[in-house]
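Researcher: We're teaching a course module on how sequence relates to structure. For the next exercise, students receive a sequence and then see the predicted structure as tokens, so they can try to spot secondary structure elements on their own. Here is the exercise chain.
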Amino acid sequence: MTMILGVPVAVLFGQLLLGVINGAFYALLSLGLAVIFGLLKIINFAHGALYMLGALSTVVMFDAFGVNYWVSLFVAPLLVGCFGVLIEYFLLRRIAHEDHIYSLLLTFGVALLIQGILTNIYGVSGLRYSMPDVFSGGVNLGFMFLPYYRAWVIVVALLVCFGTWFMIEKTKLGSYLRAGTEDSQLMQGFGINVPLLVSLTYGFGVMLAAFAGVLAAPIYSVSPVMGGNLLIVVFAVVVIGGMGSIAGAVITGLLMGVIEGLTKVFYPEGSAAVIFLVMVVVLLIRPSGLFGKEA
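Model: And here is the predicted structure for the students to work with:
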């Protein structure tokens, strides 16, 4: 059996694959947080609950209406995104001019409310969602077995991340978004509906979280509490990359997934804490994060 640093090759690459998959989810969720904070300066603590809503709505739509995976991949994020727009319009807009801590507390309360209601309905044991038949099986790469669905998750997550970065950084719509949040009065003078722009931006960030939830449904057990622990890790990833940095969120999410996977191989006891250790080191050296801008 081929060994690398005393570890079987199949085990090493298997954990690396798991790390890349986790990193893809970290990247998508971190990207949504970075969009919301970077453009709106809202610390969205409801992100984990909205990720969970994406996964849970996929299961519910299939059980109740027979909606398949491909339809859910578009419908579930859209529904959760509309719910996010309602949160911004009826709740967050009321405290838009207050300190950031108020948005954090409000979204944290919304997350607890969503989680509590759905826990009473579905419990915490978890629901299963079958993988689409087209992704059954995998390919033998010689040194490891790569399931088709895992490969799909990695590819589509990277495409969505790149598309979001390109839209925000390289298009006229992205320039409107950035300008509207930096100088809303000037943009309103040009006839831009800034409040609508803010609502749609928050809804888009929420859609990214829900999209990650749909991708996660066939892999992980779907339950109302599935987003809680993941949110803490994702916030650590955002801090490492730099609050509000779009590229930083994506790159750091993938990197932290790989580091976590390698840690599970060489020091399993530290895998749950390695991302937070990296966060502490980065903040001591560069408080603004790896890709963040100095205040």
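Model: If you want an answer key for the exercise: The two ends are 52 Å apart (CA to CA). The beta strands are 3-4, 7-8, 138-140, 145-147.
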